[in-house]
Each structure stands twice: as C-alpha cells, then as structure tokens.
Write a structure and sequence with these properties.
heterodimer, A: alpha/beta, Rossmann fold, 6-stranded mixed beta sheet, B: 757 residues, mainly alpha, ABC transporter involved in vitamin B12 uptake, BtuC, 3 domains, two-stranded antiparallel sheet, 70% helix, binds adenosine-5'-triphosphate, binds magnesium ion, cell membrane (chain B), ABC_transp_permease (chain B)
C-alpha cells in the first residue's frame, strides 16, 4: 500500500478537461516527480489532493484511507502538507510566526524548538524576524517549505519549489529533499528545473494535457520519445 | 380574484423599481468588482435633484428628467469612478466596501444639508398625478404603469447594450477577466467609467419613480437599496434576468403579504412578539435566505491580496499607552463641562464599538456591518438580567451576546467578503425591526441600563462614567493586543492573509471565524452594557453602525489606536456639531469625506500618525522631556496660571505639533532647527497664552482654533525641521544605504576618508 494513492482522478472546468483520469502513487521515503508542460494539470492535481478542488470523478487515499470527501484541514491532520506555486505566505506575520502558526495547528509540544530547527534546516534562520510579505521569492519559497514541515507531515506536496531560487539555494533544496525522504517523508515534487528533478526523484510521472503519458525512473523518462515530444512539440 | 389582480399589479410595480435599482448594482459590481452600498443614496440624491428642478424651480417634467437622468446622473457616476473608485484596485474588500459606506454617509450628509427636512416643501407629485386607468375592474395609477414600463424598457435596453454594442461586449469581457481585456487592447478604465455612469442613471430613475410613490424622505429612499441587494444576490450579482425575476418576486411577496395580513385570521403577534415589523423585513429575510443558499465560497490560491502595514505594539508600549490614556482622561475629566463630559463619554463608547471590529475585521479580515447591533443587545441584556448591574451581570451579558454573535455567524460563515458583510447587515436590520422595535424589548421607547456596580467605587456621575468607559476601553484594548500576540491572534491573521494556506495547514476556518465573531460581539456588548443610562433603539440602528465601521477603517481597523481614533473622531464630530450650529452641515459630511480618501491610505490614519511617533521609541530622553512638558502644562493649569481651555489646547499642541518634531530639532545640525524651534515655541505660546474663555466665544470655535494652530504651526515646524540636516543614530554601515547622505555629511565623509565620492 502506497502512502498516497490517486485513482482515476478527473477534473473538468466547463469544457476544459484539466485532469483526465490520472493514477499515481507516492511511496513513503521517496521523492516522486510530477512533470509536464505548462497547463498540463499539475497544480490542479495538487488542489485535488489537498482538498481545495473537488474532482469530477476519482479517488484519493492516504495510507489506505479514502480522503476524497474530507475538508482540507482534516487532510492536514492526516499528514498532508503542501506549498503553493503562487506564494501563499501569511504576509503580515513574521517568518517565525508563519512557521509557528503551522506548528501550533499541529499541536506540537516543543514549538519554539521545532520552529528554530526548521528555520535552520531550510536555511532561513537569519530572516526569522522579517515580515514574510517583504521576502524575495526565493526565501519565501523556503519559508513555505519550513511552514509545511512544521505540521509534521507524512506527505509533502511541493509545487515548483525551485522557481525563484538561485543555483546554490536550489542545490541546498536538493540536499534538503534527500534528508527529508531519509527520515521517511514522502514527497511529490512538481518542478520545471529538470536537473533538480532528475537528481532527487526516485520515480517520475509525466503529465500532458491532463493524462499521464509516461512513468518510470529518471533514466527511463529522459529517453522516452513521448516525453520529448510533449516537451519539444516535435514529432518523434 | 379581483383583489389578487390588484395586488399583483401593485407588487409588480414595486418589483419594477427594485429591478431597476438592482440592475445598476450588478452593472458596477461586474465591471469594477465594487459592491456599491451607496447605490440607493445615489437614487435618493437624484430624486431630490429632480424635485428641485421640477417642483421647486418649475421646469417641465421632460426637461427636468433629461437634466437629472441624462446629464447629472452620468456625470456623477463618471466622477465617482474617476475620483473615488479607480484608486481602489488591489486594495482589500474591507477598504473597498468602506469607501462605498463613506460615499453613502457623504451623500446623506449632503442631502440633509442642501434639503434640510424642516418646514414644508412642494409635494413630489407622481407622473400624471390623478390619472388612473381601469384594468380588470380596478384603478391603476399611470405612475404605476409608467414604473412598470420603465423596468421593461431598462431590461430591453440593457440586453441590447450588453449583446449588441462594442461597449457592452467590452463590459462583459471585463467581467470575465480584467487583465486579459487589457492585454487584448480593451480599456477597462473606460468601461468602468461607462458602467458607473449607467449605474447612476439606473439608480436615479428608480429614485425618482419611488419618490413619486413615497414622497421625498431620505431614509426609505436610501434603504431601498437593501431590497435591491436581495434581488441582486438572487441574480448572483451577475445575471440580469435572474435579478429581474428576483425583483418581481420581492415586489409580489410584499404586496401579497399586505393583502393577507389584512385578514382577520392573520395573527398579529407570535409568542407575545408583535409581528408588525414583518412586512418591512420581507426583503431582508429574502436577502438573508438568498445569501444562505449561496454555494460555499471556494478556497482559491493566488488571489492578489493587499498587505496592511501594522506593527504589533510591544507589551510595554501597550501598557504605557493604556495607563497614559486613563491618566489623561482622569486629569482632564475634572475640567470638562457636563455636556462635554457626556460627549467624550459617547466618544469612548463608540471607540469600544470600533474596537470590536479590530479582532474581526482588522485581524481576521471578516467584515461586519452590525457592530452596534451587538452593543444594543449588550444594553438589553444588561438591563434585563438580574443583579442590577453588578460585575456578574456584565459578564453574563457579554457571554450571552458573544454566543449570539457566534450563533448568528454560524450560517453566514460559509460566505466571504461582500456576501458576509451583507448578511451581517441583514441581521442588523432584522434585529432592529423585529427585536429592538418591540414593546417588550424597549418599553415605551427606551430602557435604562443600570450603572455598573463596582464595590467601593461610586460611578454614579457623568465624570465617573467617563472614567469607567476610558478604563474599559484601555483594558479591552490591552486584551485585544494580548489576543494579537496569542496563538489565536496569529491564527486570525493567518486566516486573513491566506485562507487556503491556513486550511491546508490544518486550520478549521469555521471555528476560527466563529471565535472572531464571538470575541467581537462580546467587546461590542461592553459598549452597550456600560451605557449606564437610558438608551433608545434608535441609538443602535443599523444606519448608525455604518459611520462607526467607516471611521474604524479610516482610523486603521488593524490597530487599537485606530479604533480609539475612529471613536473619538466620531464623538468629537458630535461635539463640533453641537457647539457650532453653523458647522453642523460640515460635520454631517465629515465621516464621508474622510472615508473617501481611504483609497489613498488604506492602512488607516493612525498608522500614518504612529509613523511620526515611531522614531521616538527608545529615545527615553526625549520621551521624558515630552512627559515633563505635559506635566508642566498641567501644573500651570493646576496652579491657575492658565485656564482649562489653555491647558487643553496647549496640551494637544504639545503632543501633536511639538513632540513628533523634537527628534528633528534636537538631532538637527544647521540654522534651520532654530527656526523650527522658534515656530514651535510661537505656536505653544499662543496656545497657552491666549485667554481662550474670553477671546473666543464658543467651544466649537476654540476647537477650530486648536485645529488651525496644529495645522499651521505643527506642519510649519515639521517642514522646516525635516529639511534640517541631521546626525544619524543608525549604524554607520547603513548610512547612505537607506537614507541619502546630505551634502554636509558627504563633505564630512570625504574629509575623513581623504577621497572624493
Ligand atoms: N479554476 C479554473 N477554471 C478553469 N480552468 C482552469 C482552472 N484552473 C486551471 N484551469 C485550467 O486547467 C488546466 C491545467 O491547469 P494547471 O494550473 O493545473 O496546470 P499546471 O500543470 O500547474 O501548469 P503550470 O506548469 O503552468 O503551473 C489549464 O488549461 C488551466 O487553464
Ligand atoms: Mg501549476
């Protein structure tokens, strides 16, 4: 039984089929990549998993429990956490309080220590007392990761965490992901930075026009003709 | 059967007016995203203008109609969009709504000023007054037929306009996606201006039609809009056909109710409560229901949000502020006349009501238009509960109202933004009509709220009550700041800043909103429960809530200081109106005028003011000096060297005009700082030296003089002092990074380093 199981999820916006029957598994202790061109339906799938978007059809389960009809905050209690492609920090709180709110919501015991540890871990300790709304995108993305981790999740959904990060921050993120999965966390990673994806993912799904067109190890995906076509638009 | 036909025709004609108003609301909401609470007031102004032209100046009806509807109304709409509304893009919904509240207050003030209600005036006649037509055995006035015809014409014209003209297509495009329209070469601003002009015409038409039926009265004309809200919400603020259908249903409901309630079998009361308020409440009830059956508002990521700039005060600053507030009030309370004491008391009461909005609107971002209703419920609870006003009674009253607050919010909480605000408005109107206006609730028009009974302290005087209310404000304010620094406080802010992130982190949004509503209702209840006097239902009317909401937002609804500012300003406004009758008109439009400027300063006035005082933090020398100065002025008064008025004016001058400029003066290095001090001292000398009791003959003029003194000498000092070069106390590393070096400093640096920069 996988940590996260998605079965035949379909989302239709009026005439647009944003997600057209997707099956996807995420294992604990692994980073699973979800890549695909713009508009492929990656964020929509994240919204379905986190409960912000009701699917037209299909089912989502965590640890074998069907959570398709639960509200977002119930899903969080089940160990789901996510970041947002368009940042959703609590802009008028400090960086520290952003992370603290999350830790408090998870009713952790040692809140101050946890907050400090997480800020340290993602490398934003020096920004702890800054107002979150004033951060540059790169740091803000890292704070969102720290905030998501503060809920003590089993499954972390990252929506383009490396966009806006410089090269060294990006490397650091890769290391961070490795550390996290070593601790048993399952990660679902949406990312356009291919070198990062290929480096950290244990397996990769490729989404195009709402359909999974390929699934496999990074080596496999890199040489899949269908994937190349989806990305480059050229006939194989 | 014949009766049914009569009432159907009456109902449809009423519905026709609702339809015309509501379609105007929909047109502006869809094109500019602003729900115009002042829409009814626009119609009211148009009706008065038409009356002026037609009946007072005796123009012919077509000419008067043309001037009003086709020249003045569109002009008014254009100007509203250009001057007031355009600046609001990207601000919070709270600010946008408040600005329309401001417009509302402004227009009512204006109408009261230009067309005061005293004396008799020419009657507002129906179109073709006296002419009726016989339909199916009954007489229907031409006016009703014309009204109905107007609605049909409006429907057809809007349909053609939206689907057959370029402007209409552009309007529908803007509805769908503003930024996309812009990319494609559309001009959203022009479209918005057109929409506002069109909307004002529709409001005007409805206002004139309605005035023919109901005569010229400000209130019913303005509240007409509540009925229109219901129709517009039925249309989902989007669909014009459904809006028209909703309006027809409303009109018919009203007429049929009138018919049925005439029957002898119709109950006049229910469980002892009179039902006479029901008819007037029908549109509100429909509005409430239409809101409640709306689908849950979706959680969406990526909405653009505006960030307000509010610093959380440190605990020390908060306690210092609370203590100084009490000390100052105790100090000056002995000098005030009885009536001024009562006015200041009123100011603090309003400040507590405004404070109730800080956790709810300021922190949690949920708009309520009903704060005074909870204050009213607090007053009723305090007077009805046993215990004759002891502390336990107060506590029980607060708890009950807090629970009511949460209970009311429960059904409405699925809604957000404008829908939530409207449902609180509907609640306020219902409570006013069905509870406050009951004989059981307010016997013979008013009830007396017992004075809080605290052991060993006698509060039984206006002065005692003033000190009590100032103390209550301080304590509640401290509580609100403590809340902000607490776990729940962080959650409230999180809820405002990003509901989606909060939900996906595990926050139960419903619970959090309920907590905010309960806390807010509890604080507002204090304002009513501490009234300690006779109170009447009019004091807690829905329309009275609007200026408070407005001034709280103007003051800065995110801060306790903003609430104090808003409450006292509203109270002070009443003092001014009372003291200087000639200024009454200005004081009527003041709340509106201040609110209209919100677009430029959405964080509120106190954030700007406190910006001026912020540099004083940690400059203990200057703070002590300021405090000493204050004590010195007080000592002059205590030893009867100067009068109470000189103390008051001098004290305010010292605090507002001198203190914020002290840093610039002390740190300054050039000649100019001497000039600045000279200006400040001159102002201070005038404030303290003039024999205000003799030289100026009324309270209002003295207050005006004070405002002038601060404006002239305060701003003068600031201008001169700010241009004086300063010694910087910040780290030398930062110098020149966030503050440009002055030429003097550059010279110094160059000399020291031996280089040329
Ligand atoms: N709320 C919505 N209403 C209608 N269509 C939508 C909505 N949200 C997304 N879509 C459409 O669904 C499709 C998938 O969008 P989605 O945001 O999931 O793509 P994505 O893979 O995350 O793209 P990107 O890499 O650009 O982030 C797109 O065609 C988009 O236009
Ligand atoms: Mg996306």
């Amino acid at each position: 039984m996988a940590l996260l199981e998605i079965r035949e999820v379909m989302v239709r916006f009026g005439g647009v089929m944003a997600v057209g029957g997707v099956d996807l598994d995420v294992q604990a202790g692994e980073t699973t990549g979800l890549i695909g061109p713009n508009g492929a339906g990656k964020t929509t799938l994240f919204n379905v998993i986190s409960g912000m978007q009701d699917p037209t059809a299909g089912m989502v389960s965590v640890n074998g429990v069907d959570i398709s009809h639960e509200s977002p905050h119930r899903r969080a209690k089940r160990g789901l956490a996510r970041t947002f492609q368009r940042l959703e920090l609590f802009a008028s709180l400090t960086v520290r309080d952003n992370v603290r709110v999350a830790a408090e919501l998870a009713s952790l015991t040692n809140i101050d220590a946890t907050v400090n540890r997480l800020l340290e871990k993602v490398g934003v300790s020096h920004l702890a007392d800054k107002t979150a709304g004033e951060l540059p995108t790169g740091s803000a993305r890292l704070v969102e990761i720290a905030r998501a981790l503060a809920t003590g999740p089993q499954l972390l959904l990252l929506d383009e965490p490396a966009s806006g990060l410089d090269e060294s921050e990006s490397d650091r993120l890769g290391t961070l992901l490795r550390e996290l999965t070593e601790d048993g966390l399952g990660v679902l990673l949406v990312e356009h930075d291919m070198s990062l994806v290929m480096r950290v993912c244990d397996s990769i799904y490729v989404l195009d026009l709402g359909m999974i067109i390929a699934h496999g190890t990074p080596e496999h995906i890199q040489h899949d003709p269908q994937v190349l076509q989806a990305y480059l638009g050229a006939p194989s | 059967m014949q009766e049914l036909l009569t009432f159907t025709i009456i109902g449809l004609s009423t519905g026709a007016i609702y339809a015309v108003v509501a379609s105007g609301l929909v047109v502006t909401y869809t094109t500019s995203g602003i729900f115009n609470l002042a829409h009814g007031a626009t119609g009211m102004l148009a009706a008065f203008t038409y009356w002026q032209l037609r009946f007072d100046w005796d123009l012919s009806a077509p000419l008067a109609l043309f001037i009003t509807l086709f020249i003045l109304c569109p002009l008014f709409g254009l100007l509203t969009e250009r001057i007031v509304m355009r600046g609001l893009q990207g601000t919070t919904e709270v600010v946008r709504l408040s600005v329309t509240v401001a417009l509302f207050a402004f227009m009512i003030g204006l109408a009261n000023t230009v067309w005061p209600s005293n004396g008799s005036r020419e009657a507002f006649l129906k179109f073709f007054e006296g002419n009726t037509i016989h339909i199916g055995g009954i007489n229907v006035s031409w006016h009703k037929l014309i009204t109905f015809g107007c609605a049909v014409v409006v429907a057809i014209v809007l349909r053609l306009l939206l689907f057959r003209t370029r402007m209409g297509v552009a309007m529908r495009a803007v509805v769908d996606d503003r930024s996309l329209t812009e990319l494609n070469g559309g001009r959203p601003n022009r479209v918005a201006m057109f929409a506002w002009a069109l909307s004002a015409m529709l409001a005007g038409l409805a206002g004139i039609l309605l005035a023919g039926e109901q005569q010229l009265n400000i209130e019913p004309l303005v509240l007409l809009v509540i009925n229109a809200y219901a129709a517009a919400i039925i249309g989902g603020l989007k669909s014009l056909p459904r809006t028209f259908a909703g309006a027809a249903v409303l009109g018919l409901l009203d007429a049929y109710y009138l018919q049925f309630s005439d029957n002898s079998w119709f109950p006049q009361s229910f469980m002892g409560f009179g039902l006479s308020g029901i008819r007037a409440s029908i549109p509100t009830i429909v509005l409430f229901v239409a809101l409640l059956v709306r689908p849950q508002s979706r959680l969406r990521a990526g909405t653009v949000r505006f960030r307000e700039e509010n610093k959380v005060p440190s605990w020390n600053t908060a306690v210092l502020g609370a203590v100084s507030l009490i000390v100052v009030v105790v100090g000056i309370s002995g000098m005030l006349t009885r009536s001024n004491t009562l006015f200041l008391l009123n100011g603090f009461t309003l400040a507590i009501v405004a404070l109730s909005l800080v956790p709810l609107t300021g922190y949690a971002g949920q708009m309520s238009l009903a704060p005074l209703t909870f204050a009213g419920l607090g007053a009723v609870a305090m007077s009805k509960l046993p215990g004759d006003g002891n502390l336990l009674t107060l506590l029980a009253a607060i708890t009950i109202v807090a629970i009511v607050g949460a209970a009311v919010a429960l059904p409405a909480i699925r809604l957000s933004g404008i829908y939530l605000a409207l449902s609180t408005a509907a609640f306020a109107v219902l409570v006013t009509k069905l509870i406050f206006n009951q004989r059981q609730t307010f016997m013979s028009g008013n009830i007396s709220v017992p004075i809080l009974d605290i052991p060993f302290i006698d509060i039984n005087s206006p002065r005692g009550r003033l000190i009590l209310s100032a103390t209550a404000f301080s304590l509640l304010g401290l509580g609100v700041i403590a809340l902000r620094r607490s776990r729940l406080g962080r959650r409230l802010i999180a809820l405002k800043d990003s509901p989606v992130a909060a939900a996906t982190l595990g926050m139960n949004l419903t619970q959090t909103k309920l907590a905010a509503f309960a806390i807010s209702a509890g604080i507002a209840a204090c304002a009513g429960a501490l009234a300690g006097d006779k109170v009447s239902p009019q004091q807690y009317d829905f329309t009275q809530s609007l200026p408070i909401v407005l001034l709280a937002v103007v003051g800065g609804v995110g801060t306790v200081g903003g609430a104090l500012f808003g409450g006292l300003l509203l109270g002070g406004n009443a003092v001014l109106a009372n003291a200087v009758p000639s200024l009454k008109n200005i004081t009527k439009i003041m709340p509106g005028l201040t609110g209209i400027t919100l677009g430029r300063n959405p964080s509120g006035a106190t954030s700007q003011i406190s910006e001026k005082f912020r540099p004083l933090l940690n400059r203990w020398g200057i703070i002590s000096f300021s405090a000493l100065g204050g004590v010195g002025i007080w000592a002059l008064d205590a030893s009867r060297i100067i009068s109470h008025w000189a103390f008051f004016i001098g004290g305010v001058f010292w605090f507002l005009a001198v203190m914020p400029n002290l840093i610039a003066i002390i740190d300054g290095t050039s000649q100019r700082r001497w000039w600045a001090s000279a200006i400040a001292l001159t102002g201070l000398a005038i404030s303290l030296g003039v024999d205000w009791d003799q030289a100026v003959d009324s309270t209002g003029k003295r207050l005006l003089s004070l405002i002038l003194l601060v404006a002239i000498f305060g701003v003068g000092t600031q201008r001169v002092a700010e241009n004086a070069p300063r010694i910087h106390h910040s780290s030398p590393d930062l110098l020149g990074l966030d503050v440009a070096l002055t030429p003097d400093e550059l010279d110094n640096v160059e000399r020291e380093l031996g280089v040329t920069i």
